[in-house]
C-alpha cells in the first residue's frame, strides 16, 4: 500500500515534470534534476524504494524525466535486478565485461566506456533461446540456454561412435538424435557447440584436422538449416565457466587427461598441450579391479561407476590416509548395500601415482608442472602469472579433495620462482562445466552477433575457399 503511494506520488511528480517543461520554459537543469519532495530522501533510500518495483515499472519511470531517468537507470538498481535472475551475478558480470565483443576477447574498460546495466538487462531479455551441445567423447550434454542445466545426457561413444572423426553421416546422426530428443526444430534457434579436445599439436597436419572437424560440424548443422552456430573449444568453455579468460585447464576426460594452456581465450598450442593417456574409464576400471580383489561382488559396471561418483575422493596425504578408518557404505537400488574403505581414495590416487594401476604414464602434477614450465619459458606476457590459475574440468575432476591435493603437489614440485600464486579451481558446475561455459556465451546481451557464424556467412566463406 505504502509502495503504491510512493509510486503514485513519484509518477505524478514525473508527469508534472513533463508538463512543467512543456507549459513553462523552466531552465532544463533545475526542473529535470529535481524529484520534488523526494529530494529530501537520501539517494540510497530512493534506490531501495525502486528495488521494490518490477524492472518494467522502473523502465517506465525512467522515461518520465531526466531526474528519474538517472535514478531509475542507475547501474546500482539494474545490478540488483540482474542479481535476482537465475544466473549468478558473478557469471553475468564476467560474461558482460569479458566476453561481450566475441573473439578475440576485449575487456570492457571502465575509462573508455561505461556499461549500462539497464541496457544489458533489456538486451539479455531479448536474446533468443539457443541449444547448447557439449559433445564429450564419453558423455554428451545438451539443453536450452535459458534453462539452469542440461536437459539430457547421452553416452556419446556407445551411441554414436567416435564423433571426433569428421564423418558426415555420423555427425548428422548425432545432431539429429539430439534435436529429436529435445523435440526442437534445428532451424528455430542458434546452436552453441563445443569443439572436442583433439589434434592438439601445433603442426600443419593437426591444424588441418581441426579445421576439417570444425568444417564438418558446421556443414552438418547448416545443412539442417540451423540459422547460426557458435563453435568453441571445450577447454575454453570450461575456463569461461570458471570466470577466467586465461589459465591452464586440466580436463579429466573419458579416455585421456588433457592439460590445455589458454591465454585470453586462445589455446596456446605453440606452448604445448600435455596429454596423459588415461581418464575416467581407467578410474572406473581400477575401482572395479580393487572391488574384485576385495571380494566385493557386483552385477554391472554401472554399480562401480555409481560407487566411484558417490564414495570416492582424493586424499590430501595418501600415506596418512592408509592408516585411517575410511569405511563408508551406500545402497544401490536393485543391488543392495556396498561398503568401501581404502578403495575410496586409492582410485583417485592413480592420478598422482599411475604406477599403482600398473601404468607408466606421467602423474597429474608432473604434467601440469611441465605445462607451467613451458608457459613460463615462452614468456608470452609481462607479468608471467596467467598460467598460475589451474581450472579443473570433466566429470572425474569432481572427486572431492582433488583440487587441494593437486595444489599441494604443485607447491612441492614446482620451483619457487613459479609456485608462488598457483591456485587450483575445482569444476564450477561439476560434470556440466563446459556446457555452462556455453550458457554464459549464449545468454550474453550481445548474443548471437559476435559469437556466431550464420549460414549465409559460412556458405560465402566456403565458396571463396574453393
Ligand atoms: N562426482 C563424480 N566423481 C567422480 N567421477 C565422476 C563424478 N561425476 C561424473 N564422474 C565421471 O566422469 C566421467 C564422465 O566425464 P565427462 O562427462 O566429463 O566425460 P566426457 O565429457 O565425455 O569426456 P571428454 O572430455 O573426454 O570428452 C564418468 O566416468 C563419470 O563416472
From TrEMBL:
SUPFAM superfamilies: Actin-like ATPase domain, F-box domain. It comes from the Eukaryota. Residues 35-81 form the F-box domain. InterPro entries: Actin, ATPase_NBD, F-box-like_dom_sf, F-box_dom. PANTHER family: ACTIN. Belongs to the actin family. This is F-box domain-containing protein. The lineage of its organism: Eukaryota, Viridiplantae, Streptophyta, Embryophyta, Tracheophyta.
Amino acid at each position: 500500500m505504502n509502495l503504491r503511494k510512493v509510486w503514485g506520488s513519484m509518477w505524478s511528480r514525473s508527469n508534472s515534470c513533463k508538463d512543467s517543461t512543456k507549459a513553462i520554459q523552466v531552465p532544463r537543469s533545475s526542473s529535470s534534476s529535481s524529484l520534488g519532495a523526494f529530494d529530501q530522501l537520501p539517494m540510497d533510500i530512493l534506490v531501495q524504494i525502486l528495488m521494490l518495483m518490477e524492472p518494467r515499472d522502473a523502465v517506465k519511470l525512467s522515461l518520465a524525466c531526466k531526474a528519474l531517468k538517472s535514478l531509475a537507470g542507475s547501474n546500482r538498481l539494474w545490478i540488483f535486478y540482474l542479481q535476482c535472475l537465475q544466473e549468478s551475478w558473478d557469471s553475468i558480470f564476467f560474461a558482460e565485461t569479458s566476453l561481450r565483443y566475441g573473439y578475440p576477447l576485449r575487456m570492457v574498460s571502465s575509462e573508455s566506456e561505461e556499461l549500462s546495466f539497464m541496457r544489458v538487462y533489456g538486451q539479455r531479455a531479448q536474446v533468443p533461446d539457443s541449444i547448447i551441445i557439449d559433445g564429450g567423447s564419453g558423455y554428451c550434454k545438451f539443453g536450452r540456454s535459458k534453462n539452469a542445466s542440461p536437459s539430457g545426457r547421452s553416452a556419446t561413444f556407445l551411441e554414436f561412435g567416435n564423433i571426433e572423426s569428421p564423418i558426415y553421416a555420423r555427425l548428422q546422426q548425432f545432431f539429429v538424435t539430439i534435436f529429436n530428443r529435445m523435440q526442437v526444430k534445428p532451424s528455430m534457434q542458434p546452436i552453441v557447440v563445443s569443439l572436442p579436445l583433439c589434434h592438439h599439436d601445433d603442426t600443419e597436419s593437426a591444424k588441418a584436422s581441426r579445421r576439417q572437424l570444425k568444417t564438418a560440424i558446421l556443414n552438418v548443422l547448416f545443412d539442417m538449416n540451423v540459422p547460426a552456430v557458435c563453435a568453441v573449444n571445450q577447454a575454453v568453455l570450461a575456463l569461461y565457466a570458471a570466470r577466467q579468460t586465461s589459465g591452464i585447464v586440466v580436463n579429466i576426460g573419458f579416455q585421456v587427461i588433457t592439460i590445455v594452456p589458454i591465454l585470453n581465450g586462445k589455446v596456446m598450442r605453440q606452448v604445448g598441450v600435455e596429454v596423459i593417456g588415461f581418464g575416467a574409464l581407467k578410474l572406473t576400471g581400477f575401482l572395479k579391479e580393487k572391488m574384485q580383489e576385495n571380494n566385493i561382488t557386483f552385477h554391472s559396471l554401472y554399480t562401480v561407476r555409481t560407487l566411484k561418483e558417490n564414495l570416492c575422493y582424493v586424499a590430501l596425504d595418501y600415506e596418512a590416509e592408509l592408516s585411517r578408518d575410511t569405511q563408508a557404505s551406500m545402497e544401490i537400488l536393485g543391488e543392495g548395500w556396498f561398503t568401501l574403505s581404502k578403495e575410496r581414495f586409492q582410485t583417485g590416487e592413480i592420478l598422482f601415482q599411475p604406477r599403482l594401476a600398473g601404468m607408466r604414464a606421467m602423474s597429474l602434477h608432473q604434467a601440469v608442472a611441465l605445462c607451467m614450465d613451458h608457459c613460463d619459458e615462452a614468456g608470452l606476457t609481462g607479468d608471467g602469472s596467467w598460467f598460475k590459475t589451474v581450472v579443473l574440468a570433466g566429470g572425474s575432476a569432481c572427486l572431492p579433495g582433488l583440487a587441494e591435493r593437486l595444489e599441494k603437489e604443485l607447491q612441492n614440485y614446482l620451483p619457487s620462482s613459479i609456485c608462488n600464486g598457483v591456485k587450483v579451481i575445482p569444476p564450477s558446475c561439476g560434470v556440466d562445466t563446459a556446457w555452462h561455459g556455453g550458457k554464459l556465451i549464449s545468454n550474453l546481451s550481445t548474443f548471437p552477433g559476435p559469437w556466431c557464424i550464420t549460414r549465409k556467412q559460412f556458405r560465402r566463406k566456403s565458396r571463396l575457399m574453393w
